[in-house]
Amino acid sequence: MHHATVSTKGAHRWQQGHPWIYRSDVVARPDAPAGAVRVSDQRGKPLGVALWSPKSEISLRLLDRDPDATIDRAWWHGRLTRAVARRAELGSVANAYRLVHGEGDLLPSLVVDCYDRWLVVQLMSAGLERFRAEIVDALQDIMAPEGILARNDVSLRVKEGLGTDVELLAGAVPDEIEVEEHGVRYLAAPWKGQKTGAFLDQRENRALVGRIARGTALDCFSYHGSFALHLARGATAVTALDASAHALTRAEENFRRNGFTNGTFIEANAFEYLKARERERARFDTIVLDPPAFAKTRPALPGATRGYNEINLRAMRLLAPGGLLFTASCSFHMTKPLFLQMLESAAADSGRRIVLREIRGQPLDHPELLTVPETGYIKGALLEALD
Ligand code: SAH
Fold first, then answer.
1. Ligand 1 geometric centre to CA of 336 (Å)
2. For the chain, does the N or the C end have fewer beta carbons within 10 angstroms?
3. List of the chain residues with pLDDT < 70
């Protein structure tokens, strides 16, 4: 195996529980193509084995703290088995969930999502790409899926010098897969849908919304209607809103699939819709705000915060007395404290007395490692209007 030497600063990152070592902290670069390399510090002390990405700013990603580890089929099989075993309890509530959440499962740059009998993977580093065959083999062995699709159409791969193709890796994968999630069914679109075909990361928050929904309900960034479907179980009437007509067509199909007849589907900009409803002094008993990431980069954060503030302020004003709002942000740059600060400020401006009923985060299958902030991005809160 080839070898890399890292600076004290680089070595310190591993000691602090973060698996990435940047290009500037690699003092002797391996003269080798992407793959696994042994890593030591400048005094020659062995530190472990890492994935090596020659073109990336993130040069090394820790795989194993044992410097003698051999990264072979058995190694991948062992790590993947442990990740799958952590999810055992999810099989009884859903047939779609994440099997591997990258760094959060000590499998840096790898995502594996399970949709019923099929798997969708994302290989997001050059070093990892070198082990594609081993990973596919191990997944076949552990999960025996009917097909494995690579949704490698992610821009991160460009930074690694990799292509961005959607590619069938094994068997066959259908265009649509029926997901069952806490008693609700919807179609995932593994080839063309957002992410790997659905937003699995909000599954438990959707279940929460299903438990508390009542009266007239509004789902503002509905996509294929997955929150709206859970709202439909407890609410008398649900408005599902999205800027994309295509997404709403899917939402309507998903309502029919569940035999729900209490949905109304509105193509609109949520900002304008909320403003118009507020002007009419409309009221909703249950509201969900699950917008796309407004802050995709750090410089975008101030503008994004104003956006979050605006929709949350308006949603609070639209709550009927005793009404409930589930609100979320999936912007990595909007941290938990910033999210709560934004909600406090929106509540103060709303003229309403708002109770923080629950702070929510990521589900079991999207482990957020405390030492790796990048593994956590979803914040959520369940709020209640007292008056
Ligand atoms: N809540 C969904 C995921 C939402 S993804 C789930 O759990 O599955 C974000 C959605 O917001 C996308 O469907 C996108 O079309 C929509 N969207 C983005 N900007 C919008 C806007 N200004 N108004 C309304 N919808 C918007």
1. 21
2. C
3. none
- Atom of ligand 1 minimally distant from the CA of 194: 5
CA of 196 to the centre of ligand 1 (A): 16
* Enzyme catalytic residues: 330
**What pLDDT sits at residue 312?**
98
pLDDT value at position 46?
98
For 359, which DSSP code?
Answer: E
Instruction: Give, in order, the Cα–Cα distances in Å from 197 to each of 98, 188, 202.
Output: 12, 5, 13
Q: Which of 186, 230, 242 to mutate to test the pocket of ligand 1 (most atoms within 8 A of CB)?
A: 242
Question: Do 222 and 246 form a contact (C-beta atoms < 8 A)?
Answer: no
- The verdict on the CB of residue 243 being under 6 Å from ligand 1 is yes
How far is it, in rounded angstroms, from Cα 60 to Cα 77?
A: 21
Pairing of strands 319-329, 284-289: parallel
Closest ligand 1 atom to 221 CA: 11
Write down the pLDDT at residue 133: 98
| Secondary element (H or E) of residue 315 | helix 301-318
Among 205, 221, 230, say which to mutate for ligand 1: greatest number of ligand atoms within 8 Å of CB. Answer: 221
Q: Which fold, 199-385?
A: Rossmann fold (3.40.50)
Q: Is 240 helix (H, G, I), strand (E, B) or coil?
A: strand
> In this structure, are residues 5 and 53 in contact, taking their beta carbons and an 8 Å threshold?
no
The pLDDT score that the predictor gives to residue 253 is 98
Cβ–ligand 1 contact at 247 (below 6 Å): yes
Angle formed by the axes of helices 73-86 and 132-143, nearest 10°: 50
Show me where the domains of the chain are located.
3-64, 73-177, 199-385
User: Which pLDDT value is given to residue 369?
Assistant: 98
* pTM of the predicted protein model: 0.96
Please name the CATH architecture into which domain 73-177 falls.
Answer: 2-Layer Sandwich (3.30)
Domain 3-64 has CATH 1.10.1200.10: no
